[in-house]
């Protein structure tokens, strides 16, 4: 089993357990469940920079990235920097995140928040809504076409934006459907963890213009963004580049200032 398979096996156990502890009715009765969401897709279309900044403590490939900072400080720093949206990893076992990170960020910022998670069940989408997310991520590599359709339609029924992440043309072909708002191309090979921007470039012309195109992973300099914009990308997910510094908000500010 590769790392993605292991994560999904663990995630199924986690979701099954959570369902026995917190019923759906409890999620639906939270204060945030009925809040008006903010569209990340719309935010990116209006933006000059398209930066989606990530909160990420660690990862299977990099182990510890930054465990010291509070998610509130990072969120506020990102919002002040002028990012378009913030991605928050909520997986605990492999990334050191939690749903509380989403909740704490939501309490302090108004920008669109993406719950970055390995979503395999509608229950996790209800959680995302209850904890203040505006956008959910679906990963084509771990879902069938029918699962992508069902989960994305369910998310749309709750007023959430949906970003679908693909790694290659096969995943892209099975995934394009009207219930998606954004298509994200992950430049990281999930089997080898190697990163190449060529992945985004080669898939760009195969993504219909109905979707906001987002490039993810391995974006660490202004030149990469300028290059990817030529291929029609409007969103750029940056995580480790900011999080590996002592002040992610400050490094995001400097990055954006250099970009515009």
Walkthrough of the structure:
Helices cover 42% and strands 17% of the residues. With 260 residues, the protein is an alpha/beta fold. The strands form two sheets. It has an eight-stranded parallel barrel with strand order 1-4-5-6-7-8-9-10, surrounded by five helices. The mean pLDDT is 94.
How confident is the prediction overall: mean pLDDT?
Answer: 94
Strand order of the largest sheet: 1-4-5-6-7-8-9-10
* H and E string: HHHEEEHEHEHEHEHEHEHEHH
Q: How many individual helices? A: 12
Number of strands: 10
What is the topology?
Layout: H1 3-21, H2 24-28, H3 40-45, E1 51-55, E2 58-59, E3 63-64, H4 71-81, E4 85-89, H5 99-106, E5 113-116, H6 122-130, E6 135-139, H7 145-157, E7 161-166, H8 169-175, E8 182-186, H9 198-204, E9 212-216, H10 222-229, E10 235-238, H11 240-243, H12 248-259
Parallel strand pairs: 1-4, 1-10, 4-5, 5-6, 6-7, 7-8, 8-9, 9-10
Antiparallel strand pairs: 2-3
Name the descriptors.
alpha/beta, 10 strands, 8-stranded parallel barrel, 17% strand
Brief digest:
With 260 residues, the chain is of the alpha/beta class. It has twelve helices and ten strands. The protein has helices at residues 3-21, 24-28, 40-45, 71-81, 99-106, 122-130, 145-157, 169-175, 198-204, 222-229, 240-243, 248-259; strands at residues 51-55, 58-59, 63-64, 85-89, 113-116, 135-139, 161-166, 182-186, 212-216, 235-238.
């Amino acid at each position: 089993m590769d790392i993605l398979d292991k994560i999904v096996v663990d995630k199924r156990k986690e979701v099954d357990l959570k369902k026995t502890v917190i019923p759906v009715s409890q999620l639906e009765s939270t204060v945030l469940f009925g809040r008006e969401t903010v569209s990340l897709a719309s935010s990116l279309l209006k933006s000059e920079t398209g930066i989606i900044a990530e909160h990420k403590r660690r990862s299977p490939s990099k182990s510890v990235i930054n465990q010291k900072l509070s998610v509130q400080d990072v969120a506020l720093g990102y919002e002040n920097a002028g990012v378009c949206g913030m991605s928050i990893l909520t997986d605990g076992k492999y990334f050191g995140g939690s749903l509380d990170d989403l909740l704490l960020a939501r309490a302090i910022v108004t920008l669109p928040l993406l719950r970055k998670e390995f979503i395999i069940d509608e229950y996790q989408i209800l959680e995302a809504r209850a904890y203040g997310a505006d956008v959910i991520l679906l990963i084509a590599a771990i879902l069938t076409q029918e699962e992508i359709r069902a989960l994305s339609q369910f998310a749309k029924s709750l007023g959430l934006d949906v970003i679908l992440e693909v790694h290659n043309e096969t995943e892209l072909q099975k995934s394009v459907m009207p219930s998606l708002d954004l298509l994200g191309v992950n430049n990281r090979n999930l089997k080898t963890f190697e990163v190449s921007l060529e992945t985004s470039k080669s898939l760009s012309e195969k993504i219909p213009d109905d979707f906001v195109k987002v490039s993810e992973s391995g974006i660490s300099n202004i030149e990469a963004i300028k290059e990817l914009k030529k291929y029609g990308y409007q969103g750029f997910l940056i995580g480790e580049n900011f999080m590996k510094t002592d002040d992610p908000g400050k490094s995001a500010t400097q990055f954006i200032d250099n970009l515009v």
